Each structure stands twice: as C-alpha cells, then as structure tokens.
C-alpha cells in the first residue's frame, strides 16, 4: 500500500512537472510570437521597398531605352538623308571632299555622345540602387535577430533562477528593436527609396537633354554639309 502511495505521488509530481514545463514552453512561445509579429512587420516593409524600387526602375528604364532607341533611329535617318544628298549633289568634287572630310568622325562622335549619356544614367541608377540594397541589408540584420530572440535570450539570463524576468528582458529587447525600426530604419528606407523615385524627375530629363544635344549636334553638322554643297552647286 505504501509503495502504491509513493508511486501515485511520483506520478502526480511528474504530471505537475510536465504541466509546468508545457506552460513554460507556451509562455516562451508567446514571447517569440510577439517578436515574430514585429519581424513580419519589418519584412513586409522590406518587401514593399523592393517592389516599389523594382516597379520604378522598370518604368524609368523603359523611358530611357525608348528615348535612346528613338535617338539611334534619328541619327540613322540624318545619316541616310545627308549621304543621299551628297550622292545626288552636283557640287564640284573638291567641294564635296571638303564638306564631308569629317563626316566619319562626326558619326563616331555622335555614337560616343549617346554612349556617355547612357553611362551617366547607369552610374546614377547603380549608385542609388546600391544605397537601397545597403539600407535593406542593414535593416535585415535587426529583423533576423527577432526570429530567434528567445533562444538567444538564454545567453543573457538564467531561465532557472529568473523565469519571472524573461518577459521583461525579451520584451524590452523586442521594444528596442521596434523603436529603432520606427525611428531609424524606416525613415532611412524611405529616404533611399525616395532617391529612386527622384530619378524620374531629375535623371530622366537630364539624360533626355543629353541625348537631344547629341542628336542635334549631329543634325547640325549634316545641315552644314548640305548647305555647303548647295552653295557650291550654285
């Protein structure tokens, strides 16, 4: 009978211990759940930044590529018209030779001018995109730490002696990361993302102007050739 009573006490003690352990695990998981909520908030913000940047760059590149392609077509048309005019001109050969002496150089020059415009655009886009990626990478560190904040917390406190402090310690860490996200990370992400949006207002007109100048210079040179040959043929 005594043996049965001892076994019963041990069974009850084991059940109580198991129940206590289960409650403690649930307690820790609840804390981790709070951290996960903040983590998901951060990750959602990061995804929005990536998607917004991607959409903006797709549209910006579409416009830049479109203008560059139009410029190439314009240059080719100017070249064809000018060379056709030269071929049909009745001006003396000596005059023709002088008029078209630098034509090949000008063709090469307009190509280089358009290349410089594209290079300028690429440098600015690459630089501002790198700023966004750097900001996201730094922010990702804070977000990732939230995923295992309870496990990492065992480094900072003794779960046997200070179970009542777990919520306070980890809760404070979660709050610190959330506050940092709101005060530092999110404004910084908004700043670098805005720099991407600003490309549409700043870079696009700048590159279009650069391209237009290259085409205009080439067109003016072609006009000089035509005017010269017209004068010589009189």
Automatic annotation (TrEMBL):
- The reply on keyword Signal is yes
Key words, A-Z? Signal
Q: How is this protein named in the record?
A: Protein TsetseEP domain-containing protein
**Claim: Signal is one of the keywords in the record:** yes
Signal sequence range: 1-18
């Amino acid at each position: 009978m005594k043996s049965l009573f001892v076994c019963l006490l041990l069974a009850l003690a084991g059940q109580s211990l198991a129940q206590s352990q289960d409650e403690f695990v649930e307690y820790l998981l609840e804390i981790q759940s709070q951290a996960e909520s903040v983590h998901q908030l951060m990750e959602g913000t990061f995804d929005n930044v990536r998607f917004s940047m991607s959409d903006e760059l797709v549209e910006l590149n579409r416009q830049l590529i479109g203008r560059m392609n139009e410029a190439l077509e314009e240059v080719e048309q100017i070249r064809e018209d000018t060379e056709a005019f030269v071929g049909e001109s009745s001006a003396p050969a000596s005059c023709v030779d002088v008029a078209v002496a630098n034509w090949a150089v000008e063709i090469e020059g307009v190509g280089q001018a358009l290349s410089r415009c594209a290079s300028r655009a690429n440098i600015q886009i690459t630089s501002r995109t790198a700023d966004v990626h750097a900001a996201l990478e730094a922010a990702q560190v804070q977000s990732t730490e939230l995923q295992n904040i309870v496990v990492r917390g065992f480094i900072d406190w003794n779960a046997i002696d200070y179970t009542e402090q777990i919520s306070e310690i980890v809760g404070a860490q979660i709050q610190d990361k959330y506050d940092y996200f709101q005060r530092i990370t999110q404004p910084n992400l908004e700043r670098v993302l805005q720099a991407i949006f600003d490309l549409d207002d700043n870079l696009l007109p700048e590159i279009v102007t650069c391209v237009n100048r290259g085409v205009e210079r080439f067109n003016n040179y072609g006009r000089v050739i035509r005017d010269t040959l017209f004068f010589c043929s009189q």
